[in-house]
Amino acid sequence: MRMSRRGALHSSVGGRVEVAFTGEMAEIPMNVFGKNWRLLALLSTGTLSLSKEVKGHVWLCGGGENGVEKIRGGNGAKFAEVTNVTISKSTVAVVAAGNSISGTSFGDIVPTTDGSGGGAFGHDKTGKAGIGGHVSTIPFGDNENFLKLCAAGGGGTFQKHGGVGGSNGSDGGDVGGYPTVGSQGNTIAGGADGGGHGGKKGNGHARESQGGNGLYYGDGGGNAGAYMNNNSEIISGTQGKGSQGVIYVLIPDENEEGAA
Amino acid sequence: MKFAVISKNGKTVENLIVMKPEQKEEIEKALNRTLMEAAPLGMEIGDFFNGKNWTRNVDGEQVPLPIGDNAAVDEMIALLEEVDAL
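Above: the input entities. Below: the structure tokens describing the complete assembly.
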């Protein structure tokens, strides 16, 4: 994939639509739905300006949720896909930071579908898995060019193993089996492709049980593991942080007028 | 850089967004909202300005920001745990 000059004004050649963005942008030529497109990946907030209106497709997501202490891994962000939409000459694009699960917008388009559900924290009383939206989180359904985004974080381990993070819109895993006595167990997997891992059971040190951060756009952070201290208090490590959101805009490449 | 979008009445954080700091004026105008850099106070959605401080509801109490979720506090907790273990 070729990354363009970010935020630069793209030259007009033979009627090619000029594109400018005041925030961070990567432009990537791409074949989707059997046609050639220009993918405009909007990576921060700004205003997108086109030299003329075009029909295109938009996929966007908010920021992944942070791990939720003693409950579950962070859910994947909410997302939306809108096809065959008119993209006007000037559109305000807001890119959410992590833990703002529906804070991204592109004009009037906002995230509406839940991402993947976080894995449950490993405690029968407080652990509860997150619920996914049960809709694929792969932008434009194209798994050759895009990752599964909005994956969820794993649940941290405590008395039992945490549940694995949901992926591609699935629910998070439930509380698992007991870890080996005296062992911290392993970290709990986050959802593919980038949900943060759940933390190990603490062994008297909360810092040993931190959750992992989400890796890609809209991915949730892992829930921390925990241990019980001498006062029967559950001491949790640091929660993993969710990833920021993103906006993908597909506009027809030159000589490819109209949407698929 | 992460910025907090402040509600129209100036009382709450209604969104967290990613943007270049030099765009602050441009985006404030586009969104018709005030923006604040989020990192120094560790601002999150729902944080509340009580007229004196930015605060967060922690177990039913509005606690002034920044609160525990930062590296310095984590380091202090780790030290206390080491002392406990002795």
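Note for the figure: Chain A has a mean pLDDT of 90.
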